[in-house]
Amino acid sequence: EAGVTQFPSHSVIEKGQTVTLRCDPISGHDNLYWYRRVMGKEIKFLLHFVKESKQDESGMPNNRFLAERTGGTYSTLKVQPAELEDSGVYFCASSQSSGAWQFFGPGTRLTVL
Amino acid sequence: QKEVEQNSGPLSVPEGAIASLNCTYSDRGSQSFFWYRQYSGKSPELIMFIYSNGDKEDGRFTAQLNKASQYVSLLIRDSQPSDSATYLCAVKSDSWGKLQFGAGTQVVVTP
Predict the structure, then answer these.
(1) What are the tens digits of pLDDT across the range B48-61?
(2) How far is A36 from A100, CA to CA, in rounded Å?
(3) Which chain B residues touch A if contact means CB-CB below 8 Å?
(4) Is A97's pLDDT higher than 90?
(5) Which residue of A has its CA nearest to B40?
(6) Number of cross-chain residue pairs from A and B with Cβ atoms under 8 Å apart
(7) Secondary structure of A22-52 in HEC code, one letter for each residue
(8) Is the peptide bond before B111 cis (omega within 30 degrees of 0)?
């Protein structure tokens, strides 16, 4: 069974540009989470999808971040326009149910110059 | 005050010894507790979870939970060099799955 996959693995962009990160959860997992780790800090929750619906987006830092999960399969996280403080590693995780443990993807390392 | 606190380390442990990692959390209503292991540049990998007070053992790993003291720990017995990694404590406080992480404890097992 394939694990959680994320694309790209690395992205380097300039301030003001747009970047879209993609996450493919484990097949059959209705719950999909986005997290972020900025340098020197702990992993922080961004948002949670149940199928295609946003269950909790309390961790989204501001309206420059837009997450979608059309059809309840893969998810995208768009940052527009990117700022320097957006640099970090963006992790996606999925689980079968909201109470189950979460499986993490390898992350996308975003660098904003 | 951070919601989930861990000593950052590094925790240096001789091969074959017991590594003891600690984690405290601030939300008394927290329900579930997880330990993830993360090798450098890799994804966090779940190694233990615990929901009830007391001890839970799985192979060389033992998780201990004390809700009254808001404290969860992880013991790694017979530590191996392959156990060298960062160990993340994660806490789930609501029913929807959002995890709150500590900053992680780096463990270095020396041969």
Answers:
(1) 999 999 999 999 99
(2) 20
(3) 2, 4, 32, 34, 36, 42-46, 49, 88, 95-104
(4) no
(5) A106
(6) 55
(7) EEECCCCCCEEEEEEECCCCCCEEEEEEECC
(8) no
DSSP letter assigned to residue B24:
E
Does the pLDDT of residue A99 top 90, yes or no?
no
What does pLDDT average to over chain B? 93
Q: Inspect the interface and report whether the beta carbons of B97 and A41 lie closer than 8 Å.
A: no
Q: How far apart are CA A76 and CA B7, in angstroms?
A: 34
| Distance to chain B for A97, nearest Cα, Å | 8
User: What whole-number percentage of chain A has pLDDT above 90?
Assistant: 88
Nearest-Cα distance to chain A for B34, in Å, is 8
Please judge whether A99 and B104 are an interchain contact, meaning their C-beta atoms are less than 8 angstroms apart: no
pLDDT in tens, A31-85: 999 999 998 889 999 999 999 999 999 999 999 999 999 888 999 999 999 999 9
3-class DSSP assignment, residue A85: helix
CB contact (8 A) between residue A44 and residue B99: no
Question: What distances in angstroms separate CA A86 from CA A28, A109, B9, one per listed residue?
Answer: 30, 10, 26
Q: Inter-chain contact B98–A91, Cβ cutoff 8 Å?
A: no
Kind and range of the H or E run holding A34: strand A31-37
Q: Which residue is listed with tokens 């501001």?
A: A62
Average confidence (pLDDT) over B26-53: 93
Among chain A residues, the shortest Cα distance to B5 is held by A42
Mean pLDDT calculated for residue range B32-46: 94
